[in-house]
């Protein structure tokens, strides 16, 4: 019990004394919260319009690096993946002294069992794709080519800056401040801590992967329970405005972007309210990550308003923020974990998923039950649209690619909107979640994907018939 209380004290949260924590902080303590938090807000939560597209500061930096190194990034990604696989194989075969220590480096380079196999597979796929040898279904432009030439450069640059800048948003009190202000609404509407609003906004303005990264870190630090982390990661990793605009252009709906995106937001909110109250998410326990235990308590103490208590929580958190040296080390380890640990899994699972969609009829077969449902909802060209309802589980871009040839604008509107609200796709978000410590497996992810599809599809069809067309 005393250990549990110590953990809560370490996080700067209110314990049993409702009068504890009256504000008595110096100007320096407030500045330690305000200045780093403003940096985090500027890079993650402030919309920036570049070349007519809405993005965020971190996205601008990533795009600049990607543009400057575009020709070299596929080869760099392949080198990272091959190095990751070789080091992991050496560690597994020879058990060197460094691999027997308890450290973050060991966590990155000593995967076990199927994770080691996927890491080797990811390296092999990358090499085959870069040099175009082996089975064509691996290195084809629509399978391994998408992963190595399109997605890997984006992940390398995006997560490089995300890992460096994310501590400004989560380690200096901003999550505590906003979480306290939003706690009542989020608890009532979504049964979640108010701080989860940050995950949603970061996803909305930047990328769904950023939202998952924030959620994963918050769960591992004890700020979300297992249920909360699973709910947030699968319902609030919202597709960014920039990507939504790209999908609208690909499928030929750029002239309907405003009603399209408003439809996505409205139906996504409905799904976020309903899905967590159904299995498998409602079955998740409200227990916390075993390594740290619970680190949050959002009850408002006597004598405090939401604002004053949020400020108090924020300054406490900032006071216990990591030192610059510890922060730098943590950032480097986060980058290493993403480049050497996550990237091989994305390459392996993403390539296999895209190959299934490109070379087999499995998604077409699985989509047959959607044909009568689409007919019932009076969606034109139902047979052509049905596969797009499921292929998004492999990659969120595929429904737009498959649906752009459909003549009916209404059908294309429904396809694009549904693909944006499904959220879970294996080429990126799915791999992130499976690799994380959040308790979600592949079968549960597919079940949530289907559930969100069945919830949002009728709503989107209704909006399309009554308000848009």
Summarize the structure.
By secondary structure, the chain is mostly helical.
DSSP E strands, number: 2
Strand residue percentage:
under 5%
Which sequence of SSEs, written as H and E, runs from N to C? HHEEHHHHHHHHHHHHHHHHHHHHHH
Mean of all residue-level pLDDT scores = 86
Count structural domains: 1
Topology diagram in text:
Layout (H helix, E strand, L loop, with lengths): L1 H9 L16 H18 L2 E4 L2 E4 H13 L3 H22 L9 H6 L3 H19 L4 H4 L4 H27 L3 H17 L5 H10 L2 H13 L5 H10 L5 H10 L6 H18 L31 H14 L4 H36 L2 H5 L3 H7 L5 H4 L2 H4 L6 H6 L5 H14 L3 H10 L6 H27 L1
What structural keywords apply?
2% strand, 69% helix, 469 residues, mainly alpha, 2 strands, single chain, 24 helices
Structure notes:
- This is YjiH family protein.
- The chain crosses the membrane at residues 29-50, 71-94, 114-134, 229-251, 257-275, 338-362, 413-434, 446-468.
- It comes from Marinobacterium rhizophilum.
- Residues 154-252 form the Nucleoside transporter/FeoB GTPase Gate domain.
- This protein is mainly alpha-helical.
- The protein has one domain.
- It has helices at residues 2-10, 27-44, 57-69, 73-94, 104-109, 113-131, 136-139, 144-170, 174-190, 196-205, 208-220, 226-235, 241-250, 257-274, 306-319, 324-359, 362-366, 370-376, 382-385, 388-391, 398-403, 409-422, 426-435, 442-468; strands at residues 47-50, 53-56.
- Strand 1 (47-50) and strand 2 (53-56) form a beta hairpin.
- The radius of gyration is 23 Å and the shape is globular.
């Amino acid at each position: 019990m005393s250990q549990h209380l110590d953990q809560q004290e370490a996080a700067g949260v209110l314990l049993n004394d409702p009068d504890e924590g009256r504000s008595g902080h110096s100007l320096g303590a407030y500045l330690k919260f305000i200045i780093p938090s403003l940096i985090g807000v500027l890079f993650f939560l402030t919309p920036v319009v570049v070349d007519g597209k809405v993005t965020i500061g971190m996205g601008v930096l990533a795009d600049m690096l990607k543009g400057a190194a575009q020709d070299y990034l596929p080869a760099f990604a392949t080198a990272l993946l091959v190095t990751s696989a070789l080091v992991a194989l050496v560690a597994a075969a020879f058990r060197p002294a460094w691999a027997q220590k308890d450290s973050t480096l060991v966590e990155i380079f000593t995967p076990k069992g199927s994770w080691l196999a996927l890491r080797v597979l990811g390296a092999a796929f990358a090499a085959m794709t870069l040099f175009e040898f082996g089975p064509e279904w691996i290195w084809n432009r629509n399978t391994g080519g998408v992963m190595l030439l399109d997605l890997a450069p984006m992940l390398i640059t995006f997560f490089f800056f995300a890992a460096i800048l994310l501590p400004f948003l989560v380690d200096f009190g901003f999550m505590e401040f906003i979480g306290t202000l939003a706690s009542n609404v989020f608890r009532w509407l979504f049964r979640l801590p108010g701080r989860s609003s940050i995950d949603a906004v970061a996803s909305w303005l930047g990328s769904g992967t950023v939202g998952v990264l924030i959620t994963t870190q918050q769960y591992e630090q004890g700020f979300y329970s297992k249920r909360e982390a699973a709910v947030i990661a699968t319902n609030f990793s919202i597709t960014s405005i920039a990507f939504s605009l790209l999908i609208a252009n690909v499928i030929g709906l750029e002239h309907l972007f405003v009603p399209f995106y408003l439809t996505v937001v409205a139906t996504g909110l409905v799904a976020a309210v309903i899905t967590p109250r159904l299995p498998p998410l409602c079955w998740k326990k409200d227990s916390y990550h075993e390594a740290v235990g619970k680190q949050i308590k959002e009850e408002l103490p006597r004598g405090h308003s939401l604002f004053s208590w949020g400020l108090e929580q924020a300054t406490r958190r900032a006071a216990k923020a990591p030192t610059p040296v510890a922060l730098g080390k943590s950032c480097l380890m986060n980058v290493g974990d993403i480049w050497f640990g996550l990237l091989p899994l994305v390459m392996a699972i993403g390539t296999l998923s895209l190959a299934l969609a490109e070379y087999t009829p499995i998604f077409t077969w699985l989509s047959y039950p959607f044909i009568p449902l689409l007919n019932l909802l009076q969606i034109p060209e139902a047979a052509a649209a049905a596969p797009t309802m499921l292929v998004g589980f492999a990659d969120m871009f595929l429904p737009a690619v498959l649906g752009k040839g459909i003549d009916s604008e209404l059908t294309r509107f429904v396809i694009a909107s549904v693909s944006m609200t499904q959220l879970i796709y294996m080429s990126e978000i799915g791999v992130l979640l499976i690799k994380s410590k959040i308790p979600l497996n592949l079968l549960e992810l597919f079940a949530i994907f289907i559930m969100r599809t069945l919830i949002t599809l009728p709503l989107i069809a209704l909006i399309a018939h009554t308000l848009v067309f």
